[in-house]
Amino acid sequence: MDAEVRVERLSKTYYPKQRKGLFKSERREVQALREVSLEIRRGEIFGLLGPNGAGKTTLIKCLTTLLLPTSGDAWLHGYHIVEQENLVRAAVGCMLMGERGLYWKLTGRENLIFFGALYHLPPKDRRRRAEEILGLLHLQDLADRTVETYSSGQKMMLAFGKALVNDAPVLILDEPTNTLDVPSARELRAHVRELNASGKTVVYTTHIMAEAETLCERVAIIDHGQVIDLGTVDELKRSLQRDHVTHIEGIIPERASQAVAALPQVTKLATSVANGTTRLTVVSSDGRAALPRLIEALTAHGALIQNIAPEEITLEDVFVAKTGRSLTEDTRVR
Amino acid sequence: MTAIERAASPSRLTGAAALFSSLLAMARKEFTIMTRYPVEFVASFGQVFALVAIFTLAGLTFADASGEGGNFGGVVIYGFILFMFLSDTLWTIGYNIRREQKQGTLEALYLSPASKFASLVSRVSNNLIWTSLLSLAGVGLMTALVGKLPFANPALGLYLLGLSLSGTFGIGFAFAAITLRVKETGETLANVLQFVLLILCANFFPFAALPAGLRAISRVIPLAYGVDAFRSTLMGYPEGFPELASIGVEIVIVTVFGLLMPLIGYWAYRVAEDHERRSGGLSEY
Lengths: 334, 285
What we know:
Largest sheet of chain B: none
Low-confidence stretches of chain A: none
Structural class of chain B: mainly alpha
Mean pLDDT of chain A: 89
CATH class of the largest domain in chain A: Alpha Beta
Number of domains of chain B: 1
Order of helices and strands of chain B: HHHHHHHHHHHH
Distance between the termini of chain A: 40 Å
Shape of chain B: globular
Number of helices of chain A: 11
Order of helices and strands of chain A: EEEEEHEEHEHHHEHEHEEHEHEEHEH
CATH architecture of the largest domain in chain A: 3-Layer(aba) Sandwich
Number of strands of chain B: 0
Largest interface: A-B, 42 and 39 residues
Oligomer: heterodimer
Number of helices of chain B: 12
Structural class of chain A: alpha/beta
Number of domains of chain A: 2
Radius of gyration of chain A: 23 Å
CATH topology of the largest domain in chain A: Rossmann fold
Strand order of the largest sheet of chain A: 8-9-10-5-11-12
């Protein structure tokens, strides 16, 4: 199958300023992408998975010409992202920045018509296209209201509609279901599937594992600017088959977590805390046989276990196994 | 091939048609947004009358005292007209780029294949039309206050206005470049520079009113020659006008300024844009 997006050893380094006093600042080196290489096949839904700060948005911004890479090459729909940037822009429909990419003082219809004009659609076609999109996303009733009066979810849907204006062969959607309620998120994913079925290639970034698992054919796990693993969801899960994942919830002191991590059967351990409850995701090498030892290590170090659940492998488990961290961790360099 | 596929073909993405289509769409968008702030519309109209009245009444007081009020109306109103056009062009582009950067729509524009040049020019196209109307209103008010104004050489006056504007477009592009780089500081810089230029280009008074030291600085600012040549030409070159050089020299300076500055300014903008795309600053707000 042809590659619709090809990325070869793409790197991006930033040098942000860090204040050291009233008049002093110094520049640090931040490697947002480190020699990323991947291919996205024509007609697939490809997921980019990673926590905040992993490099997903930087990769997307390079692919959509918003950022110039430090080194490496990439082609989108056969066009080079630096040398043929206008052709790349015409070949991609992008939802980035969510609702911030819209003119709030224009109506929904005016926004779509305006962006249609920027893609050089003739006036009749841009109006027709705007009507099609408003109909598709059930936004007709809001079409003549200024965007500032929309709810956050309605703005996100319109931003998604904006990405469809030029009917591009490649759709790049950066966390499109952020701020959407559950039914709207489901509706948006259904549209993504329909668009994919009509032949569009979709690049979809998310940090919601279940979303990637149900939507994407192949997934790249990105962390610290590198592709940690890439494959179909099943392939990634199979790669963990010899490991066993157990979720443990409770009031778990740090020393108990450390005791679990020190067990010889435990290969990876990720910890997250929500509402006062600690959640451990333990990847162990000898399956359920390790359970008694886990419980023993926790209780011996003062842990109060509320729930313990050996589970089927999920993409989240794959992520933990590959990176040693939970997806909810923020890895942005501050 | 569908209309949308045709629109994305390489031949449709560049050239005059693409530039014009982008310019028209962006100008229309700016106009629509402008109409969503009706109070601002009315206020800016009232502001013109207030400004013209302040300068005229203050000036007339001193002119009467010295007995030299003959060309005063022309100096003020033609200087004022040029000031309004220049002020629009000089700062509006940068302000507008910054506003879009803060809103988040600047990146949305950069995601499309629309012309960047059109994006810059469109930010003032509506203002220029609006300013033309305000200028006519200003002329009407001044005529009511001081009587009939001198109005000689309209064709040459228009030529000088056009080239001065073209030159200030160039400075506007360069200022937009600075704004992209320094963000919020650009607006403060504009506020300061606006008043410095207002004095050094002597928009509301003759250059003779400037102290010799400041007049020397005026002589190295091409824009000052634009102001001097424009109002002297429309006033029919009364004695002492133009003040900075002969009209022939001033026309040459204004022409070179009008032709070169847009190229330099646009080049500066593209360099700044390139820098921001490397540093990731395009989306900073």
